[in-house]
Amino acid sequence: MSIKDKLMYKKKSSYDVYTGETVDKIREYSAEYVSFLDRAKTERETVVASIELLEKNGFSQYKLGDKINPGDKLYYNNRGKCLFAFTIGKESLEKGIRICAAHLDSPRLDLKQIPLFEDSGFGYLKTHYYGGIKKYQWTAIPLALHGVVALKTGEVINIVIGEDENDPVFCITDLLPHLGRAQMEKPLGKAITGEGLNILIGSEPCEGEEHDAVKINMMRILNEKYGIVEEDFLSAELSAVPADKARDLGLDRSLILAYGHDDRCCSYPALTALVENDSEHTVICVLADKEEIGSEGNTGMKSSLLRDLIDELSASLNADPIVVRANSLCLSADVSAAYDPLYSEVYEKTNSAMLNGGVVMMKYTGHAGKASSNDARAEYIASLRAMFDECGVHWQTAELGKVDEGGGGTVAMYIADINIDTIDLGVPVLSMHAPLEVIAKNDLYSAHLAFLAFCK
Ligand code: MN
Ligand code: MN
């Protein structure tokens, strides 16, 4: 071995790591992920698809206060928007819990509470965007409507329009270039406004109506199909998301183009690792809502629910919850920005996540001098290095872009706040937060292996 090989660190490509049978496994695993993605475009749908997967694998529903026993495989459905799945191991809970925490919400366009209006013979829906989007990316693409309408009777109506190939789709129109001179001189962030993100939903007037005939017709169609009236929008959660299905990208099919990789490309591997895990540790997979808007609210990671759940487990298994938390470990499972050679100016290449470079560990996120970041301690990283290398996990380290270029956060710090060693680990993504994002299949599989090694 040369001195260089002995002393120097070298990042590996997944193509040097994955060969033979593993290549087939990755293909299979990615196909299952793609089918999961197509069923899970919103946080509510991701909860439903995840529960389906869990129940198929012997998990059953847990309610706060239920008695828990070693060997139990359970899930707690928090308001249909956030999910805690867990397996109770044979070892003492005071040895700590292994926690993988991902989020299942993605940037999108939410409908306003009074969304419907008509202008110049067109029916529209008003929106208020959710999460960090580049508004111009959401015009002139096919959109689908997903969500629920909660009625005063207590009934909740599920709505999905635009996913079946026989369904109509919707769209936000953009200005033709011929008349876009002034628009195109504006900065990208200002060319399309939030109030301008109105979704075109029809143009046919209601027979016999003189005023607002198109708007009335749109409501008539919705009423026919779903039994709702306009006032029911007041208690609805409806979102417009890209109507596209997840697809293989590239001649070699090495990549996946899809809506909502952030953060389902971490939620799904965290979930499948929990399902496959048979270790003696207690493991919790958290799939949180609201990460894209700051983890607020009782379905977000800032809520006391993880802490409450640990208290409940501790009470049931005669453990001291303070000791349990102090000995617990967490992987905050979230995506990282992959190095994009087309925008190399915002990246510092040595410390950037490479597509096909493996699952990414981020010691810190945040912005401007590590502000608002959970800067994980070196000892925790060392233990993960040992664990990943022993289990053959292909991984890399990175931070998000150049120093002072921008930044972002994850749920990591809210878990670290309750005295749990936490670090960010996830899949590198190109075009993050765009209507369609890109990941590499090899990295997705590396995430699965990393979470599996962590559960063990
Ligand atoms: Mn994320
Ligand atoms: Mn995000």
Explained architecture:
The chain is α/β, with parallel strands linked by helices and 456 residues long. The chain has 2 domains: 8-106 and 259-455, Aminopeptidase (3-Layer(aba) Sandwich); 108-242, Roll (Aminopeptidase i, Domain 2), CATH 2.30.250. The chain contains 13 helices and 22 strands. It has helices spanning 3-7, 14-17, 21-39, 43-56, 181-185, 188-191, 213-226, 261-276, 305-316, 321-326, 378-390, 412-416, 441-455, and strands at 60-61, 73-78, 82-87, 97-103, 108-119, 122-130, 143-150, 156-161, 199-202, 236-242, 247-249, 255-258, 282-288, 329-333, 336-337, 359-362, 366-367, 395-397, 407-408, 421-426, 428-429, 437-440. It starts with a helix and ends with a helix. The chain binds manganese (II) ion (MN) (2 copies).
Task: Give me the secondary-structure topology.
Elements (H helix, E strand, L loop, with lengths): L2 H5 L6 H4 L3 H19 L3 H14 L3 E2 L11 E6 L3 E6 L9 E7 L4 E12 L2 E9 L12 E8 L5 E6 L19 H5 L2 H4 L7 E4 L10 H14 L9 E7 L4 E3 L5 E4 L2 H16 L5 E7 L16 H12 L4 H6 L2 E5 L2 E2 L21 E4 L3 E2 L10 H13 L4 E3 L9 E2 L3 H5 L4 E6 L1 E2 L7 E4 H15 L1
Parallel strand pairs: 1-2, 4-13, 4-14, 14-20, 15-21, 16-18
Antiparallel strand pairs: 2-3, 3-13, 5-6, 5-10, 6-9, 7-8, 7-10, 11-12, 12-22, 16-20, 17-19
Helix pairs in contact: 3-13, 8-13
The site of one manganese (II) ion has 3 residues, from loops.
List keywords for this structure.
9-stranded mixed β-sheet, 6-stranded antiparallel β-sheet, Aminopeptidase i, Domain 2, single chain, 2 domains, Aminopeptidase, 22 strands, alpha/beta, binds manganese (II) ion, 456 residues, 24% strand
